[in-house]
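User: Last request for today: this protein with cytidine-5'-monophosphate, please.
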Amino acid sequence: MNALGNSGLHPIVRLAPAKLNLTLAVIGRRPDGFHDLHSVFVPLALADRLSLAPVGGTEDRLHVSGADTGPLGDNLVLRAIAAARWAVGLGPGRPATGPLAARLEKRIPAAAGLGGGSSDAAATLDGALAAWGAELDPEARYRTAVSLGSDVPFFLAGGPALVEGRGERVTPLGGVRPEGTAPGVPLVTPAVGIATADVFAVFAATRGSGDGSVRTTSSHFAEELGHGLSGTDIVARAGVLAAANDLLPATALVLPELVPLRRALARHLGRPIGLSGSGPTLWALYPSQADAADAAASVEAAVPAGTRPAPGDRPPFVVATAILSGTATSGGPQQ
Ligand code: C5P
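Assistant: Here's the final one, the structure of the complex with cytidine-5'-monophosphate:
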């Protein structure tokens, strides 16, 4: 170990998984302008790959590669390094928190309802502390995570969880039982980024609070997933889960073309189609990743034929992934 707490030979590598909201109930608007949620989040195998290494000079650096990198100004990696440095600076011992060079390989589409930016922020927080050989107590870690965004604390938890409040209350759930295969998920992301703030603003202007039935579904499903469900059990609940997102009407007002796309996908795949978070990513559930890959290939083949309407100036991003029972935080590429 060198003075920076890193071996100096290898960068710190973290996988930053995407998330899917299997339920999303909006309870109501809070005095601080955010909305209280009741939502079951699961991590996906689809992940960005982050590496961090100490570097000379005075400034942190970031290099982003990948198909959909999003605007660099919106990237949370540099903000997460700065927030981690600030939090460490307050603690006892105060190890050196020198500049870091970050490389981020984006595989999760940006502004898509998949939590990619928030996951990158959580991975950066964890990785920066490792690179510096610094520690934060869990409370300080969570406070720093919340300061970076509502979805960030979920990604520190490392598995399926019930997420409440604006996102800061995270209760780990038993998740997917190991028997059988993990549920496969084809994702279809129209090439139109949606700002979460825009969807919540429309929600607040048009509805204000969610549909009680979504809250009931969310509570019931959280309790079931708390005890652990098999992949087959989760897929069997696809119909009720795909309907359990209070933000769907608001997202459809922000991006009206999503409604015919969702309908076309439901017809094409013969499955219920859900919306992740504030969208625009649409999902379906299959018994395995191999089944999800067949579904994704069939959707991709249909898009150039013009049979699938899709908003955006490019075809939608289509990928097959799977629900993870826990979060892998280091290692090689995954999808
Ligand atoms: O926290 P984050 O930056 O992800 O939130 C983006 C915006 O989405 C917030 O500024 C807020 O307008 C809205 N939001 C909300 N309630 C939440 C999460 C986000 O109203 N629970």
